[in-house]
């Protein structure tokens, strides 16, 4: 992808279908053993060109950080929400993801006519996306709005995990961001879980 110009096809189809204001929504942090799950929702100016815009997983941390600044500066509206580890444990990760995405959509002004949502799930046992929406598998590679949301969610969560690294330095969260790496498991076995660990994810250490 050379830029956002290649990523506007989904939004154009929505506009042609009568949806005037379209947002993209994505989440970050479904898989880690520690920390909140984050979601972001973004309404971009129509046809905005953001060179290098792509699925956040395909970008370097430096490029993500640069795009984060551009997106938050130029978006019509953007919103980031999170669901804490305790709620993930009390419900389940799918419900927590859905609740975080709905919270992010609710944070937008103007209210979008339609949300383009990354993935193929829109509800769990204890949470659902109730805003008008369209699911897009691999949407962060297909839609400019979802790609922008994926970057805001990922950068926001990484920054939060760096803050948690300062609070709980023994786990080296700044290195693995809470994901289930060899180092993370080693530190968990050495120190046991801390308050931001997802107990339901830990199993037998």
Structure description:
With 205 residues, this protein is an alpha/beta fold. The protein has a single domain, classed as Ribonuclease H-like superfamily/Ribonuclease H (Nucleotidyltransferase, domain 5, 2-Layer Sandwich). The chain contains eight helices and seven strands; from the N terminus they run αββαβααββββαααα. The chain has helices at 9-16, 61-74, 85-90, 93-106, 144-167, 173-176, 182-191, 199-202; strands at residues 22-28, 37-43, 77-83, 114-118, 123-124, 127-128, 133-136. Strand 1 (22-28) and strand 2 (37-43) form a beta hairpin. Helix 2 crosses helix 5. The longest helix has 24 residues, at 144-167. It is globular and about 55 Å long. The termini are far apart. 46% of the residues are buried. Residues 1-5 have low confidence and may be disordered.
Overall pLDDT level: 95
Query: Low-confidence stretches at least 5 residues in length (pLDDT < 50)?
Result: 1-5
* Number of helices, counting only DSSP H or I runs of 4 residues or more: 8
Strand order within the widest beta sheet: 3-2-1-4-7
Characterize the overall form: globular
Spell out the CATH superfamily. Answer: Ribonuclease H-like superfamily/Ribonuclease H
Kindly state the percentage of residues in helix: 40-55%
Strand content: 15-25%
Main β-sheet: number of strands, strand sense, barrel status? 5 strands, mixed
| Tally of discrete structural domains | 1
Features:
205 residues, alpha/beta, Nucleotidyltransferase, domain 5, five-stranded mixed beta sheet, 7 strands, globular, disordered N terminus
What does the secondary structure layout of this molecule look like, with pairings?
Layout: H1 9-16, E1 22-28, E2 37-43, H2 61-74, E3 77-83, H3 85-90, H4 93-106, E4 114-118, E5 123-124, E6 127-128, E7 133-136, H5 144-167, H6 173-176, H7 182-191, H8 199-202
Parallel strand pairs: 1-4, 4-7
Antiparallel strand pairs: 1-2, 2-3, 5-6
């Amino acid at each position: 992808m050379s830029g956002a110009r290649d990523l506007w096809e989904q939004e154009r189809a929505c506009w042609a279908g009568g949806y005037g204001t379209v947002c993209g929504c994505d989440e970050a942090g479904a898989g880690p053993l520690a920390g909140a799950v984050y979601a972001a929702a973004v309404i971009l100016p129509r046809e905005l060109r953001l060179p290098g815009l792509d699925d956040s997983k395909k970008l370097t941390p430096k490029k993500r950080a640069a795009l984060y600044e551009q997106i938050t500066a130029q978006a019509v509206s953007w919103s980031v929400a999170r669901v804490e580890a305790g709620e993930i444990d009390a419900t389940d990760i799918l419900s927590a993801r859905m609740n975080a995405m709905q919270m992010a959509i609710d944070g937008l002004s103007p209210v979008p006519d339609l949300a383009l949502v990354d993935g193929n799930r829109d509800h769990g046992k204890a949470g659902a996306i109730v805003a008008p929406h369209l699911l897009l598998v691999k949407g962060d590679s297909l839609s400019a709005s979802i790609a922008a949301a994926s970057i805001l969610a990922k950068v926001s969560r990484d920054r939060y995990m760096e803050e948690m690294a300062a609070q709980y330095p023994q786990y080296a969260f700044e290195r693995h961001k809470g994901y289930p790496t060899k180092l993370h498991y080693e530190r968990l076995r050495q120190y046991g879980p801390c308050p931001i660990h997802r107990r339901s994810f830990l199993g037998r250490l």
